[in-house]
Amino acid sequence: MPAEYRELSPAKLNLFLKIISKRDDGYHNLRSGMTLVNLCDEVTAKKNSKFKINYIGPFAPQNNSFEDCIVEKIFSKFNLVKPNYSFTIKKNIPIQSGLGSASSNAAAVLRILEKLNYEEIKKINFSEIGADVPFFVHGKDSIVRGLGDIIVKQPFPKYHFLIIKPKQNCSTAEMYNQINLDGTNYDLNLDTDEISEHDTGNDFEVIAENKYKEISSLLKFMRSFPELIFSRLTGSGSCIYSTFESKSNAEQALSIFKKSFPEHWSAVVENNFN
Fold it and tell me: Is 64 in the same domain as 115?
């Protein structure tokens, strides 16, 4: 076996996100169009005397651990024996941002475990690790339904995106707790494997705009660029993206943004990059 294994761990953007219903178990059924972009964490595994996780990079946690580490959850959730490998995760993707970095990291680790012929991987229910994990394991642009466990391959057009990170973080759990479906009647006939004209927007945007003045003002700014197709919150936030047909238009938007908000993290990325 190789002495070292490497996997890229890409971010995702939600091109649309609808909260369909609340389940009896407290979780929510959703519907989303998800695309991978070329902003990636990097996961490396090396043989070691014991299992270990180490974080490096611009978005690594200060104490080298996350409070609810999703990679640890792979093993603890299903009472699995940890392999004697050291996993180094270079965090290039902003956290608590709606870009899916934690779930993507988990999927990258799962791909490495598969390469290691790790037998216990057969016991793992991916959707119980995290709602976005099945999508990242699938690794293709998709319509995602249910708890995130129904994955339908769906190619999306080639886009170039300007992504920006507000100072405000968004806790996924807190954002879901703000959802109020009273008086809303989503037509369940629209929740199919086919994409339609109704698949637009992000149901978390109204919550984020009402809760956080900064996100509200940045969404307004991000919708003001020339040659813009659409702007949107991704996931439950807090990252916002603007969509363009050409890289030059996205880079022009980046230049405009940096002049007004030089202290904010921002990047131009693209989908369909493989």
Answer: yes
